[in-house]
Amino acid sequence: MVSLHQGTDFNIDSLPLPRKAHHDWALFHEESPKNNYKLFHQPVITLFNYTATFSRHSHLPLTTQYLEGTEVLKSLRYLVPLQSKNHLRKSLAPLVYVQSDCDPPSDRDSYVRELMTYIEVDSYGECLRNKALPQQLNGPASMDAGDFYRILAQYKFILAFENAVCDDYVTEKFWRPLKLGVVPVYYGSPSIADWLPSNRSAILVSEFSHPRELASYIRQLDHDDRLYQAYIEWKLKGEISNQRLLTALRERKWGVQDIKQDNYIDAFECMVCTKVWDNIRLQEKQVSYLTGCCVERLMAVKDFLQCSFLFSASVRFTWIFSKTDFQSSMTRRGDISPVNVM
């Protein structure tokens, strides 16, 4: 029997217990810890046999879930020439920030607020707003609108700050500026260097000790066309040199906004069904370990969802509550010893 769980809606108390030896549990969770902290607690994630998450260590990795393919990265459709951007600097800040979720685990607004004391930032959205979008572009549905893209494309730099700091958690906040020909100033995945189109395609906040230092570097690029151009040279030439990124896009079994390919949910369900069916056939043949073959029992790696919660004091208490709740519910049901679970 297979039990498939969607991460955002997952509730520990709803697990199908008692769990039999032949019961497989599968988890699909494309989001960050913000959507369900419990799943990033080791004793919980290791309950699952099959996983599809943003981590490259998942059985079906979704790391590139926000990237359609290499062509959108190479496309010059929205690119504004540097000469025009320099002219637009008379009315625009060098940096733009667009966020409406103002209390994520990464606490990104605190960093941006400090950065704004050292360099000008045009901030749209609900967080730290100092500039308004046209009325028709207000709301999440407009975030992929051509008119919204054209506004962002006028800027030299975009603050691309994730809502959580997790290895391989890379969202549209990173890919969008690359598509538009704008240099992302990135804060989020510690493993982001593994996913850059080229070695010099983004400015990484982690490489600067203080917002003041980052602001100074951005001003330097803003005033030196040659230095700035080096960050978009890969796009102008249409050259993506990162083989890990190219391989991940080429080998994934699903597509993004592509009717010719399965979506990642269908691909995960098919993968799980294939694995389970393979094991059933092995069991039917009564293949023993003496033959060199046996039933393959997969399990989530205990620490594959690597996330930092240094900025969010509330997370620790969320986990403590989840742990206590899980232990107490298991005790009430008498299905599993809570000592063995947590």
UniProtKB/TrEMBL annotation:
<comment type="similarity">
    <text>Belongs to the glycosyltransferase 10 family.</text>
</comment>
<dbReference type="InterPro" id="IPR038577">
    <property type="entry name" value="GT10-like_C_sf"/>
</dbReference>
<keyword id="KW-0325">Glycoprotein</keyword>
<keyword id="KW-0808">Transferase</keyword>
<dbReference type="GO" id="GO:0005789">
    <property type="term" value="C:endoplasmic reticulum membrane"/>
</dbReference>
<keyword id="KW-0333">Golgi apparatus</keyword>
<keyword id="KW-0328">Glycosyltransferase</keyword>
<comment type="function">
    <text>Protein O-fucosyltransferase that specifically catalyzes O-fucosylation of serine or threonine residues in EMI domains of target proteins, such as MMRN1, MMRN2 and EMID1. Attaches fucose through an O-glycosidic linkage. O-fucosylation of EMI domain-containing proteins may be required for facilitating protein folding and secretion. May also show alpha-(1,3)-fucosyltransferase activity toward the innermost N-acetyl glucosamine (GlcNAc) residue in biantennary N-glycan acceptors. However, this was tested with a library of synthetic substrates and this activity is unsure in vivo.</text>
</comment>
<keyword id="KW-1133">Transmembrane helix</keyword>
<protein>
    <recommendedName>
        <fullName>Fucosyltransferase</fullName>
        <ecNumber>2.4.1.-</ecNumber>
    </recommendedName>
</protein>
<dbReference type="GO" id="GO:0046922">
    <property type="term" value="F:peptide-O-fucosyltransferase activity"/>
</dbReference>
<dbReference type="GO" id="GO:0032580">
    <property type="term" value="C:Golgi cisterna membrane"/>
</dbReference>
<keyword id="KW-0472">Membrane</keyword>
<dbReference type="InterPro" id="IPR055270">
    <property type="entry name" value="Glyco_tran_10_C"/>
</dbReference>
<keyword id="KW-0812">Transmembrane</keyword>
<dbReference type="Pfam" id="PF00852">
    <property type="entry name" value="Glyco_transf_10"/>
</dbReference>
<feature type="domain" description="Fucosyltransferase C-terminal">
    <location>
        <begin position="95"/>
        <end position="244"/>
    </location>
</feature>
<dbReference type="InterPro" id="IPR001503">
    <property type="entry name" value="Glyco_trans_10"/>
</dbReference>
<keyword id="KW-0735">Signal-anchor</keyword>
<comment type="pathway">
    <text>Protein modification; protein glycosylation.</text>
</comment>
<dbReference type="GO" id="GO:0046920">
    <property type="term" value="F:alpha-(1-&gt;3)-fucosyltransferase activity"/>
</dbReference>
